[in-house]
Amino acid sequence: MLSVYSLSHPGLQLVSFRLAAGESLVVRGASGSGKTLLLRAIADLDPNQGSIFLEFQARESMPAPQWRRLVCYLPAESGWWAERVRDHFVDWSLALPLVVELNLPEACGEWPIQRLSTGERQRLALIRAMVQKPKILLLDEPTSGLDAESTSRVEALVERHRKAGGGVVWVTHDAAQLKRVASRILVLDGGKATISDNHNVSGNRSNDNRGAEVESPCPTFI
Amino acid sequence: MSYIHLNNSDLLLGALLVLLNGGLSLALDLRLERRLFISAMRMVVQLTLVGLVLTTLFALVSPFWTAITALIMILFAGYEIRARQDRRFIGFWAYSLGTGAMLIASMLVMLFALTTQLAPTPWYDPRYAIPLLGMVLGNAMTGISLGLQTLTTNAVRERVSIEARLTLGATRVEALLPVVRLALRSAFMPIINTMAATGVVALPGMMTGQILSGVEPVEAVKYQILVLFLISGGTGLGAMIAVLAGASRLTDHRHRLRLERLQAPQR
Fold first, then answer.
1. Which structural domains are found in chain A, ordered by start?
2. Contact yes or no for B137/B77 (Cβ under 8 A)
3. Pick from A118, A136, B44, B253: most CB atoms within 10 A?
4. ipTM score
């Protein structure tokens, strides 16, 4: 679904991987190993070299805003530009079901942004991305500020996105979360990347609707 | 039209006031007497030189020398804009953004004024062109500096929210628009305030000068009104060019925010 070839950037060595529909790739590595830079490079937010295809469509063949709607990056620190929560949504009513699902009150649309806690911001930022129906989610520590209950609801939402044929690239420091959500693991070490399967997950991969694209050995991890 | 001729002895008499200030500084141990003396001397020397240059220039009425003088003034103003930025653009952009904006804006405004409202013969007569350009540049410089300063400071401060919009598929124009608006508003503020306060709080120096040299107040006021229109036109145009060019330099064709094109803060 998402094919990344020789992606590079200052502070990031060549990274190549393929992500199948319904697959969840967890990126691990010490602080400063380039996890965030990798996600930003995939979303084309920083100048970078290499080629990326989404369902055989090259990234450069479409305008960057269109690419970012399809391959949506969710930064660890969410950004807000208007007064109220609902001003950040084109159609707030589309967000309401997800708001309920993530354990937020329906009235939060009227809340001023300053009033939001870190966890509320994280969940609302995820909802803001999800209502645009991206094909790939690039999540940078999406549950770092959440309690166990909210974390599992976020994981369930992402799981549903996967089951519906979407892909996820996900940065987390939480080892337990990695075991729960990863179908494969990409380890960044000193800017180098290695990929392995997540053997701890049972049933995770059997559920995957894995196409031929994935069965071919994953190319080039340099 | 008549005016009182000033002799050198009159100026020396006026200089007594500065000497008085110097004495005050010595008596109260302000330690300003040295700087006061140097500044006063600089003022005298610089103005005398300008007087000589303008006298020569006005006698020549040469399009070439008028253009050279105008260009030098614009380059100095561009240097001043660069000096006033906390976060300058990297490389030659630090200088060329402000200078280019000022060159285009002041040239357009001056051509407009000199070929229609004022229309001296020849139209490039330096007696009109150079003082007018000086006034337009002085104010456009302030507006452009403020505009660029607000643009770069807020682009850095609002990085997270600008990138949030980009990640959601906004174009660079959509993502930067709030910051661009802020920058243009602050660029316009000084000239708007000046126009509102002129005649109530302050009598503009140009008008005062004309009145002192014997021009009827009503005529001097007409000149002043025209000059303020020219100034606000030049400032608005210049700030618009500088801020939009700056905003496009802060982003690229793939709609990325490129803050690394700014230098580290100067102060």
1. 2-215 (3.40.50.300)
2. yes
3. A136
4. 0.86
